[in-house]
Design goal:
Structural class: mainly beta
Largest sheet: 10 strands, antiparallel
Number of helices: 3
Radius of gyration: 23 Å
Distance between the termini: 65 Å
């Protein structure tokens, strides 16, 4: 069986079109035990790339390792280190996000105080043995710490800061998890809380992500009973009692939707909103999993994953998972430890994970080497219709490789990834690490050529903005395509066929506000009605 899988993979891989790694850098991690324990996070914007990485490990507490943590700023194009700031000496990594020249970082600390590289101390609130949580803002131009907060002072029951996100106005939000509820909190420029949204009934929080209108998507897990947020309660039940969820707050903070799927444990899936009002959603699975009307088959061995696309009403467009090649075992796939998907400006989603054997995604796209004993990092690209485009697989490591996170916010079509490896780690001809050494690696996959996307979206022009009474719409296609006008709440308010040339859409009677005009080809435009 092994010979068959390897030969089949060699044949198919010769036909695959995959991208190559432009650069990869690695920083040694002072740790020689289980390589699955150190954590690193990564985030990017149009002019910045930041990472938060474990530098040394002194001890573990619960599921986290503590030691020195480095905040790094790099040039997104070259990988050159431009700034670095150490946090010590008993610190654990949680989350990061970057925007407008400021990097935001969240984590945990123990001891008398958190020591920041600028000499400031963030004093503990509950004693040296307690585990406390912090958020800080780092000015990437000057290297100054703009502000830092011990979140445990305000939320003494906080168990985790699961995610950081920026809303459409560039304002920071952080997500805290307590025993059975979560708080999504917005801060001002000085880091002080100014708005809070609660979710009751949660067990874990994955990520949160805003769409351009201020709709807030959140992912996580919950047990049987009820999930309450935004003024609504959603009943939850499954045979096992473990459930994943994805939900959306409307821009005004009211509940939009909540969707659930049965699981075998409490997980932290990833959700990322898109510029046209959709969202991508991904995570690990250990059994057949159904989202909407789409079911992904369970893994034949170990773990599997799902990657899905849904609209602003919670309707799933498609769900993708690994596909069986034979009746036997061919391989398995797991997700990155941190956020496992990222979305670029072309609405293409990228998944980062770890695989063994051979994982088939459909068509001519595969991950892995075909050998069951080979554990490799893989990066998969999927277009907005759910078609896998290419996959990149690292060389197998002799000890361990643990993908940590992925980001596509640079705006130039490139993707950056973070990986923790033990022993030499090689991908795309780039090598970091050495025998017996653990490394925090960061790499860049270059801008994706337009030909790779080959499903070019139809251009869409709308005017006037704002519109009153009538809206003119012009598409670049030659054949009629359906189009819908969707309110920021997710409600479809107009449907029509977009003809070649100029079209007129009646918007009389619509409430003033922001809308999304979307066509069947995937083109979208923002509309304002006054």
């Amino acid at each position: 069986m092994r010979w068959f899988i390897g030969s089949w993979f060699s044949l198919m891989c010769g036909m695959c079109a995959a991208q190559q790694v432009d650069w990869m850098v690695g920083d040694e991690v002072g740790f020689d035990l289980n390589p699955a324990m150190p954590e690193h996070r990564i985030a990017s914007s149009t002019d910045a790339l930041v990472t938060m990485r474990s530098s040394t490990v002194d001890h573990d507490y619960g599921s986290k390792v503590y030691g020195l943590v480095a905040m790094d700023a790099r040039d997104p194009g070259s990988g050159e280190l431009t700034r670095s700031c150490l946090l010590g000496d008993s610190v654990a990594v949680s989350a990061t996000v970057v925007g407008e020249g400021v990097g935001y970082f969240a984590g945990r600390f123990r001891g008398d105080a958190l020591a920041v590289c600028d000499g400031t101390l963030l004093v503990t609130a509950g004693g040296a043995l307690e585990e406390e949580h912090f958020v800080l803002a780092w000015d990437l131009a000057t290297g100054d710490i703009r502000w830092s907060r011990n979140i445990s002072v305000t939320y003494p029951e906080c168990e985790d800061i699961a995610s950081l996100a920026l809303d459409p106005e560039g304002r920071l939000w952080y997500a805290i998890r307590e025993h059975s509820r979560a708080g999504l909190v917005r801060v001002d420029v000085d880091g002080m809380d100014v708005e809070q949204r609660m979710i009751d009934g949660v067990r874990n929080i994955g990520t949160m992500s805003f769409d351009p209108w201020g709709g807030l998507h959140v992912s996580g897990s919950c047990e049987n009973g009820a999930l309450t947020f935004g003024g609504q309660t959603y009943p939850v039940w499954s045979e096992n009692g473990y459930n994943m969820f994805v939900l959306r707050f409307r821009p005004d903070g009211s509940a939009g939707f909540a969707e659930f799927a049965e699981d075998v444990t409490f997980q932290d899936p990833t959700v990322v909103a898109t510029m046209d009002g959709h969202a991508y959603f991904a995570g690990s699975i250990f059994m057949p999993t159904t989202w909407g009307e789409h079911t992904v088959e369970g893994p034949s061995w170990g773990s599997g994953v799902f990657i899905a696309r849904l609209d602003s009403t919670g309707a799933f467009d498609w769900v993708l998972g690994a596909q069986s090649l034979t009746d036997g075992i061919t391989g398995d796939i797991g997700r990155a430890d941190g956020p496992c998907i990222a979305v670029d400006a072309n609405d293409q989603v990228y998944f980062l994970g770890v695989c063994r054997g051979l994982v088939h995604w459909g068509g001519e796209v595969n991950s892995g080497t075909g050998q069951f004993t080979d554990r490799c990092m893989t990066l998969l690209a999927v277009d907005s219709t759910g078609i896998p485009r290419w996959a990149l697989t690292s060389e197998p490591t002799t000890w361990g490789v643990e993908p940590q996170g992925i980001t596509a916010g640079s705006g130039d079509g490139s993707v950056h990834f973070a990986v923790h490896s033990a022993d030499p780690f090689q991908v795309g001809g780039h090598l970091v690490g050495a025998v017996g050494q653990q490394v925090a690696a960061v790499g860049r996959v270059g801008a994706i050529p337009t030909a790779v996307h080959d499903r070019a979206k139809q251009e869409l022009r709308v005017w006037p903005i704002p519109a009153a009474g009538r809206l003119w719409v012009e598409g670049s296609g030659t054949a009629p395509v359906p189009m819908v006008l969707v309110h920021a709440t997710g409600q479809v308010v107009r449907t029509a066929m977009l003809q070649a040339g100029t079209n007129v859409l009646d918007v009389c009677g619509l409430a003033p506000g922001v809308y999304l005009l979307r066509t069947g080809t995937g083109a979208a435009a923002r509309v304002v009605v006054e």
